[in-house]
Write a structure and sequence with these properties.
The complex is a heterodimer of chains A (334) and B (605). Chain A is of the alpha/beta class. Chain A is built from 8 helices and 14 strands. In chain A, the strands form 5 sheets. A 6-stranded mixed β-sheet of chain A has the order 8-7-6-9-10-13, sandwiched between helices. A two-stranded antiparallel ribbon of chain A has the order 1-2. In chain A, strands 3-14 form a two-stranded antiparallel ribbon. In chain A, helix 1 packs across helix 3. Chain B contains 11 helices and 30 strands. The chains are: A alpha/beta (334), B alpha/beta (605). At the A-B interface, strand 11, strand 12 and helix 7 of A face strand 2 and helix 2 of B. Strand 11 of chain A pairs parallel with strand 2 of chain B, so a sheet runs across the interface.
Chain lengths: 334, 605
């Protein structure tokens, strides 16, 4: 358990779920979704904090995929790309003036009469960049909102437990910003958007995030944006980095119970769209939904990004084991 | 027991069924739901681009309960009644035999099928009686089959002029009994004098033009016919008329415009040698008055023998001033004689005639109360103004029939039997003002016409359709049968084939002219008594401006339903069921509403 987290409250869960009817979507200063007074702010700090801690608690079970790869960073506990002072022997080389004489291989000097240096692997603290999509679609369903916040809590805590110094970015269509620990815990970021208001129906401008080279990049997003999969995945995988995409999703999105006349309100921009939903429409919708994520997965594979969908509405451990563990998006400590 | 409805309009409550369904359709307002995947839906299904106003119906308990409630309500409002199986109702129809009903006959058949069909279902058995309003037409139908009624009406031929339907209505009233239904079936609204008779009018206002009457006169030595064309409608009409001689020669059709509700007289001379012709207009809704057969009339001319003496000239003047009356010197050819009786003289009654008193000297005026006996010769005549001197008159005999008294003196009287009937004016006309008084002249004319009708000679006349043939026929059981032959004149003046019928002498007293325009002859024992042309000339029947339809079946239906059926005894139960259904629907609807509110949370419904 990392610093700043109250162990006694981890796993306390949400004591008040976000309800769809509480959703408030704004365009500028106008509330465009009627009857949703209070908005996401009403999720409350305690609620957000509970979900963050519930996700963080799972960092005791699951970890980020930091093993099996050399990282760059300040001295730490993970194998670095350079030589260091760890116990992990890496190679021999000739002595160069200025080398630490403690690493001269004296047995080799006795045999050969030449100074030979033992090289050990450097141990570093990997750099972790966590990007949290704070678009309205992440939070308008209570189970999905809860899962999204849990994933953020888990990612932050897992990075911290790995001895890294994670940097958390909040991103929406309006912009990006770095969030501090206090802000994350407060929950004020949920539903408020980066700019303090909910963005329009556009993908988050993750490209503005200043990712550090050779970092582990964790993107938490529902990826419900069409046509930007190549850009997003290319951006994540650039700079010899390792990237993980955790995709919270809800069954209510995958297989909605729409029937008859509907007024579908876009969670992103609040636009109202009257639709007549027949069974055939639903069948086609389910197919389009599956195809949408197939496209994203294909782009992820192409750019070496580990993408995993995490179902909402079920236990966190079960949801992670279902896909994230299998695809290597997360690991266990064992 | 069969089922009938006391208030069929109550079934309108069934309109509540679609209303309930519509409410359930419409109350399913579109569900509002927040979605994050709208971009996936956009390219799908063009059909889903916009919502439909009518939602697919979703069944629910409130819906079914409300539909049941509407059914129960309709049942209650329709006032179901159960027929008594053994009930019998009597329906008597008196069909107006007026010729105008020909125009409405087809409509009548249609309406009777509808209305009697409905009434027939209100009792176990319905007995129908169909009568004609004309006297002597007998019963057209009696039975329990509606088809029989319809068949009787279809074969029925109304042809009479305006007449009193009272006798037929009273007969129908007595046949149908106090609880029976009696309809006077006509084509306009009339007041009937018989209680319990309902007017069932099936008429329809129509425009009609026709020949209202034809007269034949002698003008400048030529026989001239005059016809009056009448327009019964409220607008001027243009019609064509022409004349066809009995030999077949026809005049050129002439177009005339008859003003609204006005008349137009047309006339022409009989062609040389022609004894009869047909005036015809082009046909309209009522073709009966569009043709008028006309004959050159030849009434029976009476001949009288005058008394000899100084008064002969004045009597000749009187006789020759009377129509179709002349003087003959041959007593063997005379039909009657004019007799001057001396004061107190006996007058023999060997031959028919008219007897006047011839006084030698003046006398005091007659005094006393004038009393006129009820008799067809003196009916409606005023004898009060007749002043005469009390000269010695004709002594009364046993069997004399006094027509007018003045004091205790018989002023006018009849003597003798039918063949030797004498009209006796028991005063001296020369010593009175009687010949200047209408009463005496009219009485004399009536007597002469009566005698004319008993002269056994052929008469040529123009008569009305259906007119009683009052001719000197032998009516005894031993007399030969009376034969009538006729040729009907149809549309356009086309004369049909000759038809004939024979009537027993005993029944010839009620022999009538054909009911349609026709030329006809009446013979008895090989002797032609009458040659005539019958034309329809009843202007009242030809006027359809006041014809209406009035079928007030509802009151009859209600009365019969009350009489022959029992109300549904379970109506209280149905009311309770209705209340239960409404209460259940209300409770379930409220429950569903609350459930919807709970479940709609996540999806923002």
């Amino acid at each position: 358990m990392g610093e700043g987290w109250d162990r006694n409250t981890i796993g306390g869960g949400c004591n008040r779920f976000l309800r769809g009817e509480d959703l408030q979507v704004r365009k500028g200063d106008d509330v465009v979704m009627a009857g949703m007074e209070g908005g996401l702010e009403r999720m409350g700090e305690e609620t957000v904090r509970g979900s963050v801690r519930a996700g963080a608690a799972w960092a005791e079970v699951f970890s980020l995929p930091l093993r099996g790869r050399a990282w760059r960073g300040v001295t730490g506990g993970h194998a670095g790309l350079g030589t260091g002072s760890s116990l992990d022997f890496q190679d021999h080389r000739e002595y160069q003036p200025g080398d630490d004489p403690r690493h001269i291989n004296w047995q080799a000097y006795a045999r050969t009469g030449q100074y030979t240096m033992k090289q050990y692997r450097e141990e570093v603290r990997p750099v972790v960049d966590i990007v949290m999509d704070v678009s309205p679609s992440m939070f308008f369903l209570e189970e999905k909102a809860e899962r999204s916040v849990e994933l953020l809590g888990f990612a932050v805590e897992a990075a911290r437990r790995a001895g890294t110094s994670p940097r958390v970015w909040l991103a929406d269509a309006e912009g990006v910003k770095v969030a501090g620990w206090e802000e994350l815990e407060s929950g004020r970021w949920v539903g408020g958007g980066v700019g303090g208001q909910v963005a329009m129906s556009k993908p988050p401008v993750v490209g503005r995030v200043a990712l550090r080279p050779q970092s582990l990049r964790v993107l938490i997003s529902d990826l419900l944006y069409p046509g930007v999969e190549r850009e997003v995945m290319g951006w994540l995988g650039a700079g010899q980095a390792r990237a993980v995409v955790l995709v919270p999703w809800s069954e209510a999105e995958a297989d909605p119970g729409w029937e008859g006349n509907m007024e579908l309100v876009d969670a992103e921009d609040g636009g109202v769209h009257p639709r007549r939903i027949e069974e055939a429409t639903l069948v086609q919708y389910r197919r389009a939904y599956a195809m949408h994520f197939e496209v994203w997965k294909e782009a992820a594979v192409r750019h070496g990004v580990m993408m995993s969908r995490v179902a909402a509405g079920r236990g966190f451990g079960e949801a992670m084991q279902q896909e994230a563990l299998r695809t290597g998006a997360v690991e266990t400590w064992d | 027991m069969g089922l009938t409805l006391g208030n069929p309009l109550g079934l309108l409550a069934l309109l509540g069924l679609p209303a309930v369904l519509a409410v359930h359709f419409l109350q399913r307002r579109a569900k509002r739901e927040v979605v994050s995947t709208l971009f996936l839906l956009t390219p799908l299904h063009r059909e889903s681009e916009s919502g439909r106003r009518w939602e697919r119906l979703r069944t629910s308990w409130p819906l079914w309960l409300q539909l049941l409630a509407v059914l129960v309500l309709a049942w209650l409002m329709a006032e179901p009644r159960w027929l008594e199986k053994n009930s019998v109702q009597r329906v008597a129809l008196v069909l107006d035999g007026s010729a105008s009903m020909r125009v409405s006959k087809e409509r009548l058949v249609k309406y009777l099928r509808e209305d009697l069909g409905e009434l027939g279902g209100l009792s176990g058995t319905t007995e129908y009686t169909v009568l004609d309003s004309r006297v002597g037409q007998g019963r057209l139908y009696h039975g329990t089959e509606l088809s029989g009624v319809v068949a009787a009406v279809e074969t029925w031929v109304p042809a009479a002029g305006t007449h009193d339907p009272g006798p037929a209505l009273r007969l129908a009233r007595s046949l149908s009994g106090p609880d029976g239904v009696v309809w006077y079936v006509t084509d306009h609204v009339v007041e009937t004098s018989v209680a319990g008779v309902q007017v069932y009018a099936v008429g329809e206002s129509a425009e009609n033009c026709g020949i209202a009457g034809v007269t034949v006169e002698e003008t400048a030595g030529r026989r001239v016919w005059r016809a009056l064309l009448r327009n019964y409608s409220d607008r001027a009409v243009e019609r064509t008329w022409r004349v066809t001689d009995r030999s077949g020669a026809a005049s050129v059709p002439e177009k005339v415009t008859i003003p609204a509700r006005g008349n137009l007289a047309v006339q022409g001379a009989f062609p040389e040698g022609s004894e009869g012709l047909v005036i015809a207009m082009d046909a309209d809704v009522f073709p009966l008055d569009d043709v008028a057969p006309v004959l050159r009339p030849r009434p029976r001319r009476l001949a009288a023998v005058l008394p000899e003496g100084v008064g002969e000239a004045s009597w000749r003047k009187l006789v020759e001033s009377l129509p179709d009356f002349g003087v003959t010197a041959d007593a063997g050819l005379a039909d009657l004689e004019i007799v001057e009786a001396g004061g107190g003289a006996e007058v023999s009654a060997e031959r028919p005639g008219v007897v006047f008193v011839k006084a030698g000297e003046a006398a005091d005026p007659m005094r006393g109360v004038v009393l006129v006996e009820r008799h067809r010769l003196t009916q409606d005549l005023n004898w009060q103004a007749v002043a005469a001197e009390a000269v010695p008159g004709v002594a009364m005999r046993e069997g004399d029939e006094v027509l007018v008294w003045i004091g205790d003196r018989a002023l006018v009287m009849l003597r003798g039997g039918e063949s030797r009937r004498q009209l006796i004016f028991n005063f001296d006309p020369a010593r009175s003002n009687a010949l200047r008084q209408p009463a005496m002249v009219v009485t004399l004319l009536r007597f002469l016409e009566e005698r004319r009708g008993r002269v056994p000679r052929e008469e040529v006349a123009n008569v009305d359709c259906g007119q009683l043939v009052d001719q000197p026929l032998g009516l005894g059981s031993g007399d030969p049968a009376v034969e009538m032959t006729w040729e009907t004149v149809g549309v356009g003046g086309v004369v049909g084939k000759a038809e004939e019928r024979s009537v027993a002498a005993e029944r010839a007293a009620v022999l009538r002219a054909p009911e349609e325009p026709a030329f006809f002859k009446v013979r008895q024992g090989g002797r032609t008594v009458l040659t005539a042309a019958a034309a329809f000339r009843d202007a009242r029947e030809a006027d359809f401006s006041k014809a209406v339809t009035k079928r007030e079946v509802e009151t009859v239906r209600e009365a019969l339903s009350e009489r022959h059926s029992q109300a549904d005894g379970h109506w209280r139960l149905w009311v309770l069921v209705l209340l239960g259904l409404l209460l259940g629907s209300w409770l379930l609807a409220g429950k569903a509403r609350r459930s919807d509110q709970r479940e709609g949370g996540v999806l923002g419904v």
